[in-house]
Write a structure and sequence with these properties.
Blueprint (H helix, E strand, L loop, with lengths): L16 H10 L3 H14 L3 E3 L11 H9 L5 H6 L32 H4 L17 H5 L5 H11 L4 H12 L11 H7 L8 H11 L12 H10 L8 H10 L1 H5 L3 H8 L3 H12 L21 E6 L2 E6 L7 E3 L1 H4 L9 H37 L1 H6 L9 H8 L3 H8 L3 E4 L2 E4 L7 E3 L5 E3 H13 L9 H10 L6 H10 L12
Parallel strand pairs: 2-5
Antiparallel strand pairs: 1-4, 2-3, 5-6, 7-8
Helix pairs in contact: 1-17, 7-8, 8-10, 11-12, 12-15, 17-19, 19-20, 22-23
C-alpha cells in the first residue's frame, strides 16, 4: 500500500463560542450570574445597565441609525446632544451642608480640606439616629477561638497561665469540646516553664466559665454538667438532672426508662421533668458561635396564585437588565478598518451576544418553571403529600429540549412559592407503584412517613415494618428497606431511639 490523498465530505457538530457562552450562563446560579454580568459590564464598554427611570421612547435616532447602517455621528454631534445649562445658585440661599458652596482660590494655611468642606464621612448618620446600627453594617463572622481569646484578654491571670489558656483554646474544636488530653497539652508546653498538670486543670476550669456555657468540656457528661452548674439554684429538678448526666447518661441513651426510675428512685412524671431539663441543654455549645457569614438564597422564579390560577414570573430584582450603549455604538463605522473601530465592532458584537444569551436563559428558565408548576399543582395546593412523580425526561419532552439542558436549568435555581422557597430539583422524584396501578411520588411517601411518625404513640413508636404495613393499607407498596432509607433521609431515628415517656 502506498499513501494517497482522499477527499471526503462529512458533517460535524461544533459548539460556537456563542453557544458555549449560552450554556455556561444557563447553568449559573443567580449570585454567580450577577457576578458574571458585573464582570461583563466592567470589561465591555458597549454594555450598560438598564435603569428603571430610563425612557426609551426618546432613544437617540443617531444611535439607531448607527445600529442599522454601522455608521455613527461624529464626536461633535454626539457631544452636542449632551450639553446642558447648569442652574445658578444663590449663595445666600444655600443651606448648611450644601455641596454647591463657593470654593475660594486658596485655602488658609495649616488647614485640611475636611475642616472647610464636607466629605463622604459627613454623610454618615449621627449617633442620635435610632435607625443607624453600626454593628449590623460592619460586623463579620467571629470564630469560636477569637471569641474565647477576647474573653481571655479580660480575665486577670499570670503570663504563664495565659499561655496555658491560649494553648487550651487552640485545642477546642468547633463543637466546643477539648480535643487533646491534659497530658498532651502538658507535653506541648516548654519544659522550662516548669508547669504541672494541676495548673493546666485549674486554667481549664477558668476557661470552662467562659461563654457559651459548657465550653471546654472533655466529654458530653461534663459539657451538660457545666451548663447545669450555671443555672439558678432554685431551678426545679436541678440536683436530679446533675445526678442523671453524671451517672446515668448511658442508660438515658439506651432509653431504658424503667431502669432509670429504679436507680434514681423517681416516678414517671418526675423522671419526665428531669429529662426535659436535660434536653433543654445544648450538647454542642461551640455551634452557637457562627464563624461564617450567612448565605442567602435569591429565588429565580416567583409563583403566586391569582384568580384560582398559578402564575409564574421571573424575579426581576435578581435579573439585571442590560442594553447596548447607544452613544458608544454610534461611534462604530462599517467601512472603517482601523484598530479602534475593529475593537469597538468586536465589543458591540460581544455585547449583543451576551444580551441574547441572557434572554435565552430567561426564556428557557420560564419554560421549565411553567411546566414544573403545571405538573405539581397538587403540591402547591395541598402540600408534599400531593407531589406527583416527575423526572427530567417529562419536562424535556414538554419543552422540546434535551435532558442535559433541563438538568442545567434546574441546578442551583430556586422557586419562591406560597409554601416556601424550593430548588427546582426538589420537584423531581422517582415513583412507586400503587395497588390501583397508579404511581406515587417518593416525596409524597416521605411526607406520609413524617406525618405517621409525628402522630405515633411515644411509648410505642412505629417500626419500619409497621410503617410499611400502614402504607400498604393505603395502596402504596413499599419495602421495609425503602422505608428505612426514606426515614434516614428525613433525619428520623429508629423506633428504638424514638421511645419517650
Amino acid at each position: 500500500m502506498k499513501p494517497s490523498l482522499v477527499l471526503k465530505m462529512g458533517q460535524q457538530l461544533t459548539m460556537t463560542p456563542q453557544l458555549q457562552q449560552a450554556i455556561r450562563l444557563l447553568q449559573l446560579s443567580t449570585l454567580d450570574l450577577q457576578q458574571e454580568i458585573q464582570e461583563a459590564l466592567d470589561s465591555n464598554p458597549m454594555l450598560e445597565r438598564e435603569e428603571d427611570g430610563d425612557d426609551f421612547s426618546h432613544a437617540d435616532p443617531m444611535a439607531e441609525a448607527a445600529d442599522q447602517n454601522g455608521e455613527g455621528p461624529s464626536a461633535s454631534q454626539t457631544s452636542s446632544d449632551n450639553l446642558y445649562e447648569e442652574p445658578t445658585h444663590n449663595a445666600d440661599n444655600l443651606e448648611e451642608g450644601d455641596w454647591g458652596e463657593r470654593i475660594p482660590s486658596e485655602l488658609p494655611v495649616d488647614t485640611a480640606w475636611e475642616d472647610i468642606y464636607q466629605t463622604s464621612a459627613s454623610s454618615l448618620p449621627s449617633n442620635d439616629d435610632d435607625d443607624w446600627d453600626f454593628t449590623t453594617r460592619t460586623s463579620s463572622g467571629v470564630s469560636l477561638q477569637s471569641h474565647l481569646l477576647w474573653q481571655l484578654n479580660l480575665a486577670p491571670m499570670s503570663d504563664t497561665d495565659r499561655l496555658i489558656a491560649t494553648t487550651l483554646i487552640d485545642c477546642i474544636n468547633d463543637q466546643g469540646y477539648l480535643e487533646e488530653s491534659l497530658e498532651e497539652v502538658l507535653e506541648s508546653l516548654d519544659p522550662e516553664l516548669d508547669v504541672e498538670l494541676d495548673e493546666i486543670e485549674v486554667v481549664l476550669h477558668r476557661i470552662q466559665q467562659f461563654e457559651p456555657a459548657g465550653i471546654g468540656a472533655r466529654n458530653l457528661s461534663e459539657c451538660l454538667l457545666l451548663q447545669l452548674r450555671q443555672l439558678p439554684e432554685q431551678t426545679a429538678w436541678l440536683e436530679q438532672a446533675k445526678q442523671l448526666v453524671s451517672n446515668y447518661l448511658d442508660v438515658l441513651g439506651n432509653r431504658d426508662y424503667s431502669l432509670l426510675m429504679r436507680r434514681m428512685k423517681l416516678k414517671e412524671d418526675e423522671l419526665r421533668q428531669v429529662i426535659e431539663l436535660v434536653q433543654s441543654l445544648n450538647p454542642r455549645p461551640g455551634s452557637q458561635i457562627e464563624a461564617s457569614e450567612p448565605e442567602y438564597v435569591v429565588p429565580d422564579v416567583i409563583v403566586r396564585k391569582h384568580n384560582d390560577r398559578w402564575l409564574v414570573e421571573l424575579n426581576q430584582e435578581a435579573m439585571p437588565r442590560l442594553r447596548v450603549n447607544a452613544q458608544y455604538a454610534g461611534f462604530v463605522k462599517r467601512a472603517d478598518s482601523s484598530a479602534d473601530n475593529t475593537f469597538m465592532r468586536n465589543q458591540l458584537q460581544e455585547a449583543r451576544w451576551f444580551i441574547k444569551s441572557l434572554l435565552s436563559r430567561n426564556e428557557t428558565l420560564m419554560k421549565v418553571a411553567t411546566q414544573i408548576v403545571e405538573h405539581q399543582r397538587g403540591f402547591l395546593d395541598h402540600g408534599d403529600e400531593a407531589m406527583k412523580p416527575l423526572v427530567l425526561h417529562d419536562i424535556a419532552e414538554a419543552v422540546g429540549m434535551h435532558e442535559s439542558t433541563i438538568s442545567r436549568v434546574t441546578t442551583q435555581k430556586y422557586m419562591h412559592t406560597p409554601r416556601g422557597i424550593y430548588e427546582l430539583k426538589y420537584f423531581f422524584s422517582s415513583h412507586v407503584s400503587t395497588a390501583e396501578g397508579g404511581e406515587c411520588s417518593s416525596t409524597a411517601i416521605r411526607a406520609i412517613i413524617k406525618k405517621l411518625v409525628a402522630a405515633e404513640n411515644p411509648k410505642k413508636p412505629l417500626s419500619d415494618s409497621k410503617i410499611a404495613g400502614l402504607l400498604e393499607a393505603q395502596g402504596i407498596q413499599v419495602a421495609r428497606r425503602t422505608i428505612a432509607k426514606y426515614r434516614e433521609s428525613l433525619g428520623i431515628a429508629p423506633s428504638s431511639e424514638r421511645k419517650r415517656l
